[in-house]
């Protein structure tokens, strides 16, 4: 995102009315009032700070769009909101994002190693209270070396990020790189000595403790984000354990918050209407449906590693599932990428298309599975792929992917008509699924992806804004002053001269000051044009749907006006 600078000598204009902005975003059929309020902040540092210090970004991203034409998230493309998002990114979100990224890499590595350790248990029929883990020697050497390098360097990065600020980012990057290089060579030099001190059993326990610690940190962050919009501080202040602060903390985070979360995830994620303005916007992100359950599952997994709650095979499968979930959840860190950011909402939309297609395809899948299963049950011997209903189901599903085996059909008897019936079922199945239904899903995905480059750009900005908003929910609203803005974000408030600008304007100081506002906010020149392009970049079907939705909204508004008379 281009660096946009604030003109600190701007003349005072109309003040930003937060209530008007909020009502426009949440209740209006269009966004004109919200846009007008944001326009008041242009070239006005005090009003920009009003937007920064308030929950404007959270309101935009958490308000559902109804009708679809007036998607509230498009407001993040307004120059003022883009500037506010960039300010929040520089002041706190960037450091929080990098910290969570490093911790996520550490968690994924440690969880992968924990699940991949080959543990040889003794005979389960014999009562052995503490099975001894034995790791494959070659695999253990590789796991240990990779773990030491990544864990050590990640720990250095986490400590160094405590001192990161935008003002000294260049110096911080240089010093951190120097420390990392020196640490790498020192670790490489003493690697043999360190490895010789690591017992396999000790290594496994330390790795599991690391997994539990990092997962617990992520769990606390997610709970803070989940309850950011809810007023749940009352139970935290109940004097049940007034003399024991630790017990009070455990009661709040270990008993109260998990209970409320379970109730909320059942009610909000599966029962409550997502268009309800009072719904939990935490579940607007598809990743958030799985994050807290995954981190809780990791804690249970680590506990089972020490006390053996599950049988060995169950523990292995549980670890593989959690490792898979962590790798999938790592995709959310692409939200800040300039080009990959828009792929996340696009993939979510395509996943929705796949779910709708599978719901439509399921009756055909079950019908043909039953047909194949009943057809081959009278044959002797029964083909291996059709021996059970489960095998028949898998074989039928693979036909959709083009995997067709003709040998079982060639062995059908011709006299009683089974041969002809078998091929009739197979040919109708292949024609219906491969020719018709697969083309339907391709058309659905093509329609989903047919949004144009402008829509992709808006989605990338929205993904970036959601990342910043998530960091703000975890951190909480912490207003800043003009002095803090000048100190913490020099790139956003710099007034250094630009060579191209001076050359264009003859180098005159007076002329430079006169036109500096246009230079600092040159993005405003194309704002109205871009906004119209976003509204016009629609297919014919989308226009019909939006027109019908707009008419319904107008009729509803007229009915409310008649009732109020």
Write structural notes for this entry:
With 565 residues, the chain is mostly helical. The chain has three domains: 180 residues, no CATH class; 244 residues, no CATH class; 105 residues, Helix Hairpins (Orthogonal Bundle), CATH 1.10.287. Helices cover 68% and strands 0% of the residues. It has 23 helices and no strands. The protein is globular, with a radius of gyration of 30 Å. The N terminus is likely disordered. It is a multi-pass membrane protein. This is Polycystin cation channel PKD1/PKD2 domain-containing protein. GO terms for molecular function: monoatomic ion channel activity. Pfam families: PKD_channel.
Please give the number of β-strands.
Answer: 0
Shape: globular
Mean pLDDT equals 74
Q: If you compute it from the alpha carbons, what radius of gyration comes out, rounded to the nearest whole angstrom?
A: 30 Å
| Intertermini distance | 49 Å
Q: Helices and strands: which structural class?
A: mainly alpha
| Fraction in beta strands | under 5%
Q: What's the number of helices?
A: 23
Count of discrete structural domains: 3
Helical proportion, percent range: 55-70%
* Low-confidence runs: 1-12, 120-134, 489-541
Q: Can you write the helix and strand succession as a string? A: HHHHHHHHHHHHHHHHHHHHHHH
What is the gist of this entry?
With 565 residues, the chain is an all-alpha fold. The chain has 23 helices and no strands.
Write the layout of secondary structure elements.
Layout: H1 18-27, H2 32-39, H3 45-53, H4 56-62, H5 79-116, H6 137-160, H7 169-189, H8 191-196, H9 200-226, H10 245-270, H11 288-307, H12 312-329, H13 343-376, H14 389-400, H15 407-410, H16 418-449, H17 452-475, H18 482-488, H19 490-493, H20 499-504, H21 509-520, H22 527-536, H23 540-564
Helix pairs in contact: 1-2, 3-5, 5-6, 5-9, 5-12, 5-17, 6-7, 9-11, 9-17, 11-12, 13-14, 13-16
GO molecular function: monoatomic ion channel activity
Domain Polycystin cation channel PKD1/PKD2: 321-450
Protein name: Polycystin cation channel PKD1/PKD2 domain-containing protein
